[in-house]
Amino acid sequence: MDKYEITVDTFNKLAEKYQEKYMDFELYFDTYDTFCDLISNDRAAIFEIACGPGNITKYLLDKRPGFKIEGIDLAPNMVELARANNPTACFHVLDSRDISSVNRKFDAVMCGFCTPYLSKEDVAKLITDIRALLKTDGILYLSTMEDDYEKSGFQSSSEGDRVFIHYHPLDFLKLNLDENRFRIIDIQRKAFPVENGTPTTDLFVFAQAY
Fold first, then answer.
1. Has this prediction a pTM greater than 0.85?
2. How many structural domains comprise the chain?
C-alpha cells in the first residue's frame, strides 16, 4: 500500500471518531464565516473537496441554508456520515486527484485540510483543477498545515494508526494560485494545539478566480 492508501484506510476506519472531534470544532468557525461573507449569492453552487463527515457543510448550511453543496471524499465511511449529517446536500466518493472528471461550474470551492494529505505535485494539480471548476469571480477556501515541505512524513497515533502529513509553505501556494489566475483576498493562521508537543500552524487562504 502506498502512503495515500494507508492514509485513506485510517480515515475510513476512524470516521466516527473524527466526527466526534470535529463536528462542532469551534476553532475554525470564523474562517467559515469569512468564506460565507465572500459569497453574495444565497443559492451559490459550492463544491467541497475532502468533505469528511460533513462538518463544514453542516456549518455552512446552518448559516446559509440556500447553498447548493456537492461534496466528495475518498473514504466511503466519511461520505456515509456526511450524507446522514446533511440530507439536503449531495456527497459521493471521489479522489481529489480526479476532480477534472466533474463537468460542472461552481460559484465557490471549499477545500478544508485536503492538501496536508497530498504531495506538492498533487497540490499543484489540484489548484489547476479547482480553477477549471470555478466560474470567473468564484471563491476558493484552501486550508493546510504550514511548514517546510521537507518535514512531511508519517504520523502515528498511540493505537498505531498512521497518516502521511504533507506540510506546505505559503510561498508555494501563492505561486500556484497566481499561475492559475487566482487573486488572494485574505490569509489567516491559527495555532493548532498538539498534546505533548509544539502547536502546528494551520494556514487559511481565501482567493478569487479571475
1. yes
2. 1
Distance of alpha carbon 120 from the chain centroid:
15
C-alpha cell at 42: 444565497
Question: What are the strands of the beta sheet with 90-93, ordered from one edge?
Answer: 90-93, 68-73, 45-49, 106-112, 134-146, 200-209, 182-192
Give the pLDDT confidence score for residue 1 in this predicted structure.
82
Which residues fall within 8 angstroms of residue 87, CB to CB, at 6 or more apart? none
Contact between 38 and 63 under an 8 Å Cβ cutoff? The reply is no
Residue 134 belongs to what H/E stretch? strand 134-146
For the chain, percent of residues with pLDDT exceeding 90: 95
Which domain, by its residues, includes 140? 3-209
Written as nine digits, the cell of 87 is 440530507
CATH code assigned at 187: 3.40.50.150
H or E element at residue 200: strand 200-209
- Digit-coded pLDDT (tens) for 131-153: 999 999 999 999 999 999 999 99
Of the candidates 64, 58, 54, the one whose C-alpha atom is nearest the C-alpha of residue 34 is: 64
